[in-house]
Amino acid sequence: MIKIKNTQKKIKIDEKEVYKIAHDILTILDYSNFDLGIWLTTNQTIRKYNKLYRKKDKPTDILSFQFYEKIKPGERIVPKPTETKDLGDLIISLEYAKKDADKQGKLLIEHLKKLLAHGICHLIGYEHETDQDYKKMQARESYILKKLDGLDN
User: Fold this and answer.
1) Which SS3 state, helix, strand or coil, does residue 47 take?
2) Among candidate residues 133, 95, 131, the one with its CA nearest the CA of residue 115
3) pTM listed for this prediction
């Protein structure tokens, strides 16, 4: 189940469309039977979480919180029968995302596709700490976005 919470009021967003994108990404990755939380919020709120968890006192576009830690990129998550099928949670600042989308001349929903792909990749073990990690993550994100584009046609 995908749960979306929108606590910001400034930016209009079609939550059903965000849900569909997230669902499509989980389907592409064969994780459609896993839970995912998405919190759409403000720069002020995401800044607090960025400071608390990453020690960076500034807003950002997205934060990812894995349910299963120490997963290797490409390694399938196989929960034990007693474990929850939960990928984790994403926090997205719509203010930050809209500013980035505007800079790139994109619609916010198009930019959110990239952010959701990026965040979900983090939840399944991809990182970008090294150049090699970055290349793996970029390849996975590109794969997801290409598949999403195919679904839109």
Assistant:
1) helix
2) 95
3) 0.94
